[in-house]
Amino acid sequence: MSDVLIVDNSSICRELLGRILEVQGYAATWTTPEAAGEMLRRAPAALIILEPGPIGSYGWRVLEEIRLGKAPGDQPIVIVSDQAGKDDVLRAARLGVRDYMLKSRFSLAELLVRVRRHVAPSKPRQPANGTAAGNPAAGAAAGAEPVSELIPPIAAMPPAPFRPQLNEKATREALLAAAKQLAIVPRTKEQTLARLESAPLKTLPGVVADLIMLVNSPRGTVADLAQILRQDPILTANVLKVANSAAFTSHRARVPTVEDAVKVIGVTGLRNLVVNVGIFDAFAVGGAEGLHVSRIWQHCLGVALLMEKLAPKDDSVPPGSAYLVGLCHDLADIVLRQQFAAEYRDVTALVKQTGYHARHAEAVVFGVPYGQLASHLLTRLKLPPVITVPIEEFFERPRSMSGAGAGSLLGRSLRALNVYAHGLLLAGDMEEPLTPLTRDECEKTFCDGAMLAPAEDEQIRCDALVTASVLAGFNAIQAYEVGEQLVPKGTAKVCYSTDGEYSKLDPLLSFLRLTTKEVTSAPPLKGLKPAMLDGMNALIVVGPRTGAAEVFHQDQERLRALVGGTSLPVLYMSGYRPPDEKASAGNIAFRQLPMRISELAVFLKNIA
How far apart are CA 536 and CA 491, in angstroms? Predict the structure, then answer.
């Protein structure tokens, strides 16, 4: 019998809550609403934490079966839900539920108080700050300050200021003026490169370097992996530790050997795991900066998983290379933060002062564009060209490669899936860009009809969050806090309309699914009818990315005819930039693609 059973459709929520309760000494299990009845029959629980979902969904059926005696147990039930409606609360009360908590408002401390009210832990409480051997980030996480005190609450983040559209020269001049105001002395290109050349950069462990080089080799058997891993017993021990974590397996049996790990996660999964552990151990960043970098690791892992799933498979893409490109594409950012901590404080100050993206501020502070710094670092790390070339394409993006079919297959895949990871809220910060992907760029890069279901989105996000936390050595409470969504899920119902030029592989749709109660997909604007907006809290429209002024003005008139005289908030985004903020009037806001996550968050917060 378990102390607590957690029932939730969200794999992230149920798993992380389960790990938190285990730290507190509870025997916890977790499952989906569909499997809850069978699990209760096999292993009764003293307490159930339930997310029933909207009325009519399977979670409510589970609650009714328990209370009507069709499922075993008359144990207390705590509901932790997204649903804030009066009908939901009253329905739960009629079914004997006295503890009803909203996900958008609850705290871990409050949840633990309610759990302790009903059931006592059956095991001793685990140490609050476990560390991973040899892991500087884990040691930092175990310091005196909890994660929640080092990462500001998302709700406290101010909206980004309006920035006029400036060309590259004007942007640089504006940032240089701000630097002078802040007494920041920019470095020259020569100073930065000389310092980088002499910096004692860490190198990849030999085992990891060997595995990376194997992307051009047909080798990849269990024996090959085991033989390579035997060269580094410490790395092998760390790999097996992670293989036994919830990031890779939900069963309770221990994985004692490399061969057993292969049976659980496969040859490809084990190879990826070895590379994850080796790279993280080599380049982890400690202290408060390390906690910020944890979000970059989440992003890298998310992009790596997306690349492995969606990047095309052909002769130009050796097996394993897509995952490595995704995992390593922001490695230069992490290394730079190790070597230039003071300069990054200047970058942060400039971004806060001006509202411009960190990439623009970096170019001013370092005296050299970020793409050149990344290329220089990748060369020093001695990664093979099959990995470095797509990453260099991704950062440089010269005009000659701006077309949908330009560059290598991996380079094009990285450009698209980097944005898709932002849509899954796996981003380094709130200023990362977000835009739908066009059919043209997807058809020239991915297999026909490439798209991800909502369940696949959530699984990729969960895998990235949990793996990053395990690699960092975070305990369950820290993992839950660092895994908090950049933009919290709200209660709004949104009608979402996109132009016909966009693909079904849509990062913005994924973002809205994570941040709103309900998203209803609608036809392009010219086919949108007023009846489709009934019951909606907002309308979000994406016009053509290549839109000209004429198309923009036509869509303006369509929107005014559609929602004129109503107070329905409307956000219209397209490739055309309105000449000034005056284009937005009343309840209709016009913005240019790509949007920043922070700007979308402000719109959603205002309609909540």
Answer: 11
